[in-house]
Amino acid sequence: MFNFLKGVVGGSGTGLKDLPYNIGGPYPSAWGSWSHFRGTSNDDGSPVSIFSLSGSNPQDGHLAAGRNGVKRLRTVRHPNILSFLHSTEVEAIEGSGTKVTIYIVTEPVMPLSEKIKELGLEGTQRDEYYAWGLHQIAKAVSFLNNDCKLVHGNVCLASVVVTQSLDWKLHAFDVLSEYDGTNGTATGPMLQYEWLVQSQYKPMELAKSDWTMIRKSPPWAIDSWGLGCLIYEIFSSLKLGKTEELRNTASIPKSLLPDYQRLLSSMPSRRLNTSKLIENSEYFQNKLVNTILFMEILSLKDSVEKDTFFHKLPNLVEQLPRQIVLKKLLPLLASALEFGSAAAPALTALLKMGSWLSAEEFDLKVLPTIVKLFASNDRAIRVSLLQHIDQYGESLSAQVVDEQVYPHIATGFADTSAFLRELTLKSMLVLAPKLSQRTMSGTLLKYLSKLQVDEEPAIRTNTTILLGNIASYLNEGTRKRVLINAFTVRALRDAFSPARGAGVMALCATSSYYDVTEIATRILPNIVVLTIDPDSDVKSKAFQAVDQFLQIVRQYNEKSNAGDIAGAASLGISSMPGNASLLGWAMSSLTLKGKPSDQTPLAAANSVTLATTTTSTASSGLIETLSTAPVHCVSSGTDFADQSMPASPTSTDGWGEIENGIHEEQDSDKDGWDDIEPLEEPKPSPALENIQAAQRRPVSLPVSQPKPQATSLRPKSTAKVTEDKDDDLWGSIAAPPPKSSSKPLNVKTGGAVDDDDPWAAIAAPPPTTKAKPLSAVRGIGTKPAALKLGAQRINRTSSSGM
C-alpha cells in the first residue's frame, strides 16, 4: 500500500532528481509540521513555493496525513485554493534508520501572517484589504462545503497563504475529509486526522468528539467556526491561544460583528453558512472589493457599464491601497485590454497605474500590453494610444517601434478620420527618433508628403512643423532632397496663413542644414515674397527669417574674404533667438463641424508658435478657434511680384526628389520644383510665353525718353521698372533673356517699330493695318487700368507674326 501511494503521490521516489526545482530559504512559519521554502524552477527560473514534511517512520501518522493533503490538493481546484504544481517523496538513510520526506511544489506564496506585517496597512485601507481576503477565503470554504461536500477541518491564520498578486488562498488539506452526514449509523470519526487540529481551533462538538452531532450538523458547521477564528486572528493581530479569547470582539469591525457572532454560534445548526456571508454581509461592500469583483466578471458586463466603470477608475485607484492596485488591479486591467474585454478608456487607468511603477516594472508589466494593443482594429483604442503616447513612447525600444509599432500606426496616415490622421502625425514626434533610416526615407516621408497637401489646413501646418522637428534625424542626403522643397514649394505657397508661417519658422529652425548657395537662390527669394503677406504674423516671421538668412550669407562672405574657407563652410544655425528650440504644434485636435469649403477665416494671431512658454497663449488661442469654428483656407488678395498666392494644394504626389533625386539647373525658373508644383495651370501658347518672358526681363530705358505707361503689361504693383538689374528680386530664377542672335518672334514685318519703345518688339500693329489690332484685346490699348494679362484671348489667326 505504501509503495502504491508513493507511486501515485510522488512519482518514482528515487531521490531529489525527481524534484526539478531548487529549494531556497525558509519562511519563519508554516501550518502544522510542514516547512515552507522559497524555490525556483530548474527550467526557467520562475519562482515557486516548496512545502516539505519529514518523518523517521514510513507509517508515521503525520506522513499519512501529509499524503492525504497532497492527494486532496492535487485533485481539488479552485481560484481561491492553492495551485498544485508537483510533488515527490524521498527516502534517505540516516544512521540506522530511514528518513522519509514529502515535497509539494505550488505557485509562489507567502504566509498570511508575514504578508500582513510586510504590507503594514492601516485604517480604511487595511479593512478594505482584509475584506477582500476574507471574501476569497469564504468563497473557498463555501466551495468545499456546499459544492464538494468536503470539510477542511482547520481553517485558521496558518492555513492561509498570499500570492504575488496579494490574493488569499486556502491550503493545509491534511485533515480534509468527506462530509458523512448522510450515514446516520456511523459512529467512528468523520475526520480521520482531526488530532492534528489544535484544541483552540476546535468547536465544542469537535472538542468532545461528538461525531453523532457533527453528522447531524450542516457541512459548513466546523469550517464556519474556523472562519470565525481566522477573523479574530487577523483583526487582533494575535495568534489564538485559547477558545475563550474569541469572546473579545473589541477589534472586530462593527459591520462584521453580527456575522462574526453567528459564525461562532454554540449551536452547530445555527452557524452562518459561508455562502450567505458572501452574499449578505455589509462588510464586503467597499470600493476595493467591488472594483476587483467588477474586473473579474468584466466580460459579462455591457458596454455602458464598462464605459462608466473605466471613466471612474483613474480617480478610484488613487483611493485604494497602492500595492493592491499595482499587484492585483494592474494585471487584471492589462489582461482585459489585451484580450479585448476592456473599453478604450481603460488605457488611461492602465497608464496611470503604470506611472507608479519603476522603469523596469513598467517595461515588464505595461509595455507588452501596449505593444499588442497597436494591432487592435478598434479605432477608439488606437485614438487612446496615440493621445497618451508621450507617457510611454520613450520607454519603447527602437526595434519594437520600427518592427511592431510603426507598421500599425502608419495606417492612420491615410485614415478617413482627420482627427486620427492628426494624432498619427503628432505621434511621430515621439517615435521618429526610434525609426530606422530605411523606414523614415522609405515610408514616413511619403506619408508626410501626402499629408502636406491634406484637405485639413491644420494637418498641413502640423506636417510642416513635424518635418522641422525631425530634420535632425534624417540623413544628409534626405535632408538635401526634402526640406527645401517641402518648406518652400509646399508650405510657403499654402493658402492657410499658419501653414505659411510654419514654413518660415521651419526654414529658420533648420537653417544649419542649408549651404549658402541654397539660401541665396532657393530660400531667400521665396521668403522675401512673404514680407508683403496679408497676414501680419506671417510678415513678421518673414522679416525675421530674411534677417537670419542674410546674416548667414553675410558671415559667409566675411569669412570667405578673410580667407577662412573652412570657417565659412561650417557656418551653423544663426543666433536668432528661439530657433534652436524645436517647433511647437501650431494646431490641436480638429473639430470637424463643416467641410473645408465652408470654413471661416482665422485671426492672424492664431498662427504658428514655437515650443516655448511665452507662445503657449497664441497656440491655445488657435486651439479654441479650431474648436468653435471650422478652419478656412485664407487666400491672399495681393499680387506678390507677379505671382498670386496659390490655392490649397491638392496634388498627392511626393516631393519628387525623395526617390529620384534632385536634378537642379542653375537656369531653371522652377529651381527643382517641377515635379511638386502645387498648381496645375494650363500651358500657355509659345507666343504668350515670349510675352511673359519679355515682361520679366529688366528693361533699360533711355534717359531722354519717358517710361511707357499705356502699353505696359505688368500689374500696377510692379509697374515701376528699375535700371539696375540686381534690384530684381526674382532675377536669379527669371527666364534668361533671348540671345542677340535669335530673331524676335513677335516683330511685325508690315508695321513701323518705335526704337524708343521697349515693348514695340511685341506690341500689336497700329490700327491702320488690316489686321485686328491688339488694342482691342482686354488689358492693352486705351484701358491702362486693367491689370489682367489679356494675351490668353489673342486670336492666333489675326496676326501673321504670331
UniProtKB/TrEMBL annotation:
Q: Which PROSITE patterns does its entry note?
A: HEAT_REPEAT, PROTEIN_KINASE_DOM
Bias class Basic and acidic residues marks the residues at: 660-673
> Residue ranges of region Disordered?
637-774
Q: By its UniProt entry, which InterPro entries does this protein fall under?
A: ARM-like, ARM-type_fold, CIK-Related_Protein, HEAT_type_2, Kinase-like_dom_sf, Prot_kinase_dom
Q: Which Gene3D superfamilies match?
A: Leucine-rich Repeat Variant, Phosphorylase Kinase, domain 1, Transferase(Phosphotransferase) domain 1
Q: Which SUPFAM superfamilies match?
A: ARM repeat, Protein kinase-like (PK-like)
Compositionally biased spans, kind Polar residues: 702-715
Please give one Gene Ontology molecular function term for this protein.
ATP binding
Stretches forming HEAT repeats: 366-404
Superkingdom of the source? Eukaryota
Extract the SMART domains matched here.
S_TKc (SM00220)
Q: Where is the Protein kinase domain?
A: 2-357
**Identification of the protein by name:** N-terminal kinase-like protein isoform X2
Q: Which organism is it from?
A: Durio zibethinus (Durian)
Upper classification of the organism: Eukaryota, Viridiplantae, Streptophyta, Embryophyta, Tracheophyta
Gene assigned in the entry? LOC111296024
